[in-house]
Amino acid sequence: MNQPIVGYHEDEEGDWVADLACGHGQHVRHQPPFMNRSWVITTEGRNQHLGTLLNCKKCEEPQALS
Q1: Is 34 a domain residue?
Q2: Is 23 left (phi over 0), alpha (psi -120 to 50) or beta?
Q3: From CA 49, how far away is CA 57, in angstroms rounded?
Q4: Phi-psi region of 30 (alpha: psi -120 to 50; beta: other; left: phi over 0)
Q5: How far apart are CA 25 and CA 19, in angstroms?
Q6: Number of domains present in the structure of the chain
Q7: Which domain holds residue 8?
Q8: Is residue 65 in a domain?
Q9: I want to staple 17 with a disulfide (CB 3.0 to 4.6 A). Which of 25, 30, 45, 55 is the partner?
Q10: What's the pLDDT band for 65 if we cut at 50, 70, 90?
Q11: pTM of the prediction?
């Protein structure tokens, strides 16, 4: 399910995590040649991608039964 990026935070290892509108997070790493996300490196780049839709796999997982 696509969710917009509403903010960012760094994890315990210093990698950037996009905060999604649904409340979940998703890593947004720049690791060429596998992931080319050079925009993650700067504050300006991250701010330009606020509102960008990312596929939240956690939202697509079936909910655990109580």
Answers
A1: yes
A2: left
A3: 19
A4: beta
A5: 5
A6: 1
A7: 2-60
A8: no
A9: 25
A10: low
A11: 0.84
